[in-house]
Design a protein that fits this description.
It is built from eight helices and 22 strands. The protein has helices at about 75-90, 110-125, 155-175, 205-210, 240-250, 285-295, 325, 335-345, and strands at about 15, 25-30, 50-60, 65-70, 90-100, 130-135, 180, 215, 225, 235, 255, 260, 270-275, 315-320, 350-355, 360, 370-375, 380-385, 390-395, 400-405, 410-420, 420-430. The strands form six sheets. Strands 2, 3, 4, 5, 6, 7, 8, 13 and 14 form a nine-stranded mixed sheet that branches. It has a four-stranded antiparallel sheet with strand order 19-18-21-22, with no helix packed on it. It is globular, with a radius of gyration of 22 Å.
Length: about 425
């Protein structure tokens, strides 16, 4: 069937992300209004944040597995359109599962399958790029087994569920799902102290999903003192705590459940509160954070007593709770954490309106319902999204030119071209029949 013709009424300025994979600034966006950290629209998020984690998808009332999410103070259509705008700027927008106040348990295969289906529904409805696992409290605990071979049914079902969600997401969208995790220290580095209950409870999950995992961002706050791999004990809110707990992930460590193998630095981000009121403890001033990160990356002197084993120049970046707290002036200097990220890594992640080099889109107008994209290398992913952020067309470039045939209603669309999952072109187009 010959596709309906459409005309390209307006080719807006092209935008590209000024960073590749990392360094990333990850921020949690909380879906409620706090008196000191007010609700923000996604359109108000500081442009230096490159990964936005929407908090939270939680179980429906009376359930521990049937997940739901709705924006609290934004119309769903507006929220979804804002997600698409952020994605067109090269950012990733994820839905975070759980949080401190929601218990997630998968106590049967039926519950596991409903968890999977409900999360896939949320991903599809809002166009999220993936999920973040932020399970706390009673949601995760271990009673036996090892890191490599867990025996707790809830842990095993959670691992199976995440694998299933990721597989189905990729089959539907044609691109891998992004996966991040934000456990508290007791669930990870706490495995050096004990292995049972909450202590080390995330380690089997991280280990089983390490090939899918994009970023591990342990919460280096609301924590008691923790062991480092040198046997020393370190206290939150210090450069030593940041360095010791981060290097434990990068070097691996022994537990009573076996050895936790190290993660590459590209998968590790440092998680801290944006300002003093954002957490019960663990905040550090930007200067202290800079000292710790510079030391880890090998660009600065030792800031405390902990002596690192190696340097990690490709450390993934920073995470914070939360974007809302960072934006407010009720706690610290507004956007203090975003500015610290820019200062530490020496880059700005703001999206600039610049001409994309070498890639062309034609004809204008399109006279046969076919949009041509040229100047490619081959291997790029081309994605066409509607105004709600839903993917309506995908194509993998096999040569330097791709023809996209489109048969759809009048409206605004976004054409995105990605190389190795990093956007190189975003163009808004208006299509008419």
């Amino acid at each position: 069937m010959r596709p309906r013709s459409f005309a390209l009424l307006s080719a807006f300025s092209l935008t590209i992300s000024l960073h590749a994979q990392g360094p990333d600034l990850v921020g949690y966006w909380h879906n409620w209004n706090d008196g000191n950290a007010p609700y923000l629209e996604l359109s108000q998020v500081d442009p230096r944040y490159t990964v936005i984690e929407v908090s939270f998808a939680v179980p429906a009332a009376g359930s521990t597995y049937d997940m739901e999410f709705a924006p609290a103070e934004t119309a769903p259509a507006t929220f979804t359109a804002d997600v698409a705008v952020l994605q067109a700027q090269g950012k990733k927008v994820l839905i975070s599962i759980g949080g401190a106040n929601a218990t997630v348990h998968l106590d049967s295969d039926v519950e596991r399958d409903q968890f999977v289906n409900s999360m896939l529904g949320i991903l599809a409805t809002y166009g999220f790029d993936g999920i973040d696992i932020d399970l706390e409290g009673a949601s995760v605990a271990i009673s036996g087994g090892t890191i490599a071979n867990p025996t707790d049914a809830r842990i095993i079902r959670l691992i199976d569920a995440v694998n299933s969600i990721a597989d189905q997401y990729e089959a539907t969208n044609g691109v891998p799902m992004m996966l991040t995790m934000a456990p508290e220290t007791a669930y990870v580095q706490g495995g050096m102290s004990a292995y049972g209950g909450i202590w080390g409870a995330y380690l089997p999950i991280i280990d089983a999903l390490r090939n899918r995992l994009d970023i591990l961002q342990v919460q280096l706050y609301n924590s008691g003192s923790m062991y480092g791999i040198d046997g020393g004990i370190y206290t939150q809110g210090t450069a030593d705590f940041i360095v010791s707990q981060t290097e434990a992930l990068l070097q691996g460590f022994q537990t009573n459940g076996g050895f936790f193998a190290p993660l590459p630095p590209e998968k590790v981000a440092i998680g801290l509160p944006a300002c003093p009121l954002a957490a019960g403890g663990g905040y550090v001033a930007p200067a202290v954070l800079e000292q710790a990160v510079d030391y880890l990356r090998g660009t600065g002197p030792q800031p405390g007593s902990y002596q690192r084993v190696a340097t990690y120049p490709t450390l993934r970046g920073l995470m914070t709770w939360s974007i809302n707290w960072d934006a407010t002036g009720n706690c610290a200097v507004p956007d203090e954490y975003a500015q610290a990220f820019e200062d530490i890594f020496g880059i700005t992640t703001e999206v600039g309106e610049v001409e994309a080099t070498g890639i062309t889109v034609w004809p204008v107008p399109v006279d046969a319902g076919v949009l041509h994209v040229g100047g490619l290398r081959g291997g790029e992913d081309l994605v066409l999204l509607d105004a709600m952020g839903r993917v309506v067309l995908t194509e993998r470039a096999s040569s330097d030119c791709v023809e996209l045939s489109f048969d759809g209603p009048t409206g605004a669309y976004m054409l995105r071209v990605e190389r190795d999952r990093a956007p190189v072109l975003s163009r808004r187009v208006v299509v008419v029949r």
